[in-house]
């Protein structure tokens, strides 16, 4: 059952940091504050400068606090799927209480018993998602508390990630002056919040087109089947425009916003003047030439995704593809995706007032996911957070000394080893959509309505 209360999502993106505070009441989610601040210290979705990222997060948090009129203490942060590993895991414990009635402690303990597998020192448990409990051989139980039994078993999925990435994330959030409520695996939150029940059952894929990276997540039978990150996004489109037209990145970004079209056949025939480095007079560029530059990069991203989805037969999923993310706002992205993938593609635009923008889909999903965690999920999280101690100690079935979730804050053994690529300074605000006298007007007006 969904929990009532305030849940704050924090999306630490390469281009911008997004914060969303929502009040959840009886399964309904009301957004009460949202912010979008320029990102810093993040490359390819990974924190590479704790101080810079913490300062940017602080700004985003205080903007959201101002809008929401409440102070934010806890945040639910999204973790990209970089180097994520998923393992089916099981645990078993004897129910030790005299009454043999299964309690919260038993649930924590059975999860803990599943976490004791040996792991290399560079990896850490991010989360554990219980799938099924078995009480004295009776299977398919979702919440065993209150039941009587002698033997409690559990099966679930264990998500682990690189220790350095997790450490940097925790440290950064701490420095920003807030506490981590949950680390949420982004593709899990996105597929739950953006796809409907039927799409999750029969299967569909989400493509999140960000500034520095593009994330893919495919789901079927309510379970994540595949997720991957491609280190290219909308900022690479801007860089391409800048390089090809020999113009500044600032101007390239504004050309993309105002004249950009990702599907060449839809590009207008008009032209515009561009100040080119090394030329005294501005150079005339046609919309279709700009569209060719844009579509080359996006097609390149889509081609890589197609190869991966094809190989796993995930393009056959009946739900097709749902696109989100700031880079998906570009007119023509859906048409280009349809051409490349050859399956139905739709753009997902959140429905809540003030955030009708595909770039906010991820942060909304984080708040929603946090509010929908069940009691059993929460107990599993408590068990996971005590896991750092347990890996160095014999397992005892006693309740952990502290019931408040605790995070490991050991120094990182090594700096992030992710390839660091140059990311242009990104615009901090949701851009104003200017009217443009071309075929892209229709689409642009639609996007303009997203920012009410
Ligand atoms: N109206 C628009 N038209 C075209 N591109 C846009 C528009 N609005 C935003 N973008 C692009 O979207 C990208 C940012 O998207 P988003 O906010 O989803 O990224 P992010 O979450 O910060 O980054 P990442 O997910 O890569 O870490 C930038 O490249 C930006 O230029
Ligand atoms: Mg993003």
UniProtKB/TrEMBL annotation:
<dbReference type="InterPro" id="IPR021873">
    <property type="entry name" value="FtsA_C"/>
</dbReference>
<keyword id="KW-0131">Cell cycle</keyword>
<dbReference type="InterPro" id="IPR050696">
    <property type="entry name" value="FtsA/MreB"/>
</dbReference>
<comment type="function">
    <text>Cell division protein that is involved in the assembly of the Z ring. May serve as a membrane anchor for the Z ring.</text>
</comment>
<comment type="similarity">
    <text>Belongs to the FtsA/MreB family.</text>
</comment>
<dbReference type="Pfam" id="PF14450">
    <property type="entry name" value="FtsA"/>
</dbReference>
<dbReference type="InterPro" id="IPR003494">
    <property type="entry name" value="SHS2_FtsA"/>
</dbReference>
<keyword id="KW-1003">Cell membrane</keyword>
<dbReference type="InterPro" id="IPR020823">
    <property type="entry name" value="Cell_div_FtsA"/>
</dbReference>
<dbReference type="Pfam" id="PF02491">
    <property type="entry name" value="SHS2_FTSA"/>
</dbReference>
<feature type="region of interest" description="Disordered">
    <location>
        <begin position="397"/>
        <end position="452"/>
    </location>
</feature>
<comment type="subunit">
    <text>Self-interacts. Interacts with FtsZ.</text>
</comment>
<keyword id="KW-0472">Membrane</keyword>
<dbReference type="GO" id="GO:0051301">
    <property type="term" value="P:cell division"/>
</dbReference>
<dbReference type="InterPro" id="IPR043129">
    <property type="entry name" value="ATPase_NBD"/>
</dbReference>
<feature type="domain" description="SHS2">
    <location>
        <begin position="7"/>
        <end position="194"/>
    </location>
</feature>
<protein>
    <recommendedName>
        <fullName>Cell division protein FtsA</fullName>
    </recommendedName>
</protein>
<keyword id="KW-0132">Cell division</keyword>
<dbReference type="Pfam" id="PF11983">
    <property type="entry name" value="FtsA_C"/>
</dbReference>
């Amino acid at each position: 059952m969904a929990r009532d209360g305030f849940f704050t999502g924090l999306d630490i993106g390469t281009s911008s940091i997004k914060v969303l505070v929502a009040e959840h009441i009886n399964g309904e989610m009301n957004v009460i504050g949202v912010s979008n601040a320029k990102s810093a210290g993040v490359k390819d979705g990974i924190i590479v400068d704790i101080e810079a990222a913490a300062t940017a997060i602080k700004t985003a948090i205080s903007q959201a606090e101002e809008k929401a009129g409440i102070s934010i203490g806890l945040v639910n942060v999204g973790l990209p799927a970089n180097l994520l590993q998923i393992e089916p895991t099981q645990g078993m414990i004897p129910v030790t209480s005299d009454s043999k009635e299964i309690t919260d402690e038993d649930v924590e303990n059975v999860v803990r018993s599943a976490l004791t597998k040996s792991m290399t020192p560079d990896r850490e448990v991010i989360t554990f998602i219980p799938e099924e409990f078995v009480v004295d051989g009776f299977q398919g139980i979702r919440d065993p508390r209150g039941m009587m039994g002698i033997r409690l078993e559990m099966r679930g999925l264990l998500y682990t990630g690189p220790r350095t990435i997790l450490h940097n994330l925790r440290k950064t959030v701490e420095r920003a002056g807030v506490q981590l409520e949950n680390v949420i695996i982004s593709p899990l939150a996105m597929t739950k919040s953006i796809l409907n029940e039927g799409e999750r059952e029969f299967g569909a894929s989400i493509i999140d087109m960000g500034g520095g990276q593009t994330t893919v997540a495919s789901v079927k039978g309510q379970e994540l089947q595949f997720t991957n990150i491609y280190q290219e996004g909308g900022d690479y489109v801007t860089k391409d425009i800048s390089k090809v037209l020999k113009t500044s990145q600032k101007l390239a970004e504004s050309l993309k916003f105002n004249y950009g079209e990702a599907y060449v056949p839809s590009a207008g025939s008009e032209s515009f003047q561009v100040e080119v480095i090394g030329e005294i007079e501005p150079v005339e560029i046609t919309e279709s030439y700009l569209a060719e530059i844009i579509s080359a990069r996006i097609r390149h991203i889509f081609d890589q995704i197609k190869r991966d989805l094809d190989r796993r037969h995930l393009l056959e999923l009946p739900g097709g593809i749902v696109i989100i993310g700031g880079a998906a706002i570009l007119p023509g992205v859906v048409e280009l995706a349809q051409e490349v993938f050859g399956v139905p593609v739709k753009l997902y635009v959140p429905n809540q007032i003030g955030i009708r923008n595909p770039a906010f889909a991820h942060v909304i999903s984080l708040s929603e996911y946090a509010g929908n965690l069940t009691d059993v999920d929460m107990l599993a999280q408590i068990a996971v957070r005590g896991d750092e101690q347990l890996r160095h100690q014999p397992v005892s079935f006693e309740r952990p000394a502290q019931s408040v979730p605790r995070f490991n804050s050991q120094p990182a053994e090594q700096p992030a080893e992710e390839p660091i690529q140059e990311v242009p300074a990104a615009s901090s605000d949701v851009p104003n959509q200017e009217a443009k006298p071309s075929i892209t007007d229709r689409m642009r007006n639609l996007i303009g309505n997203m920012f009410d």
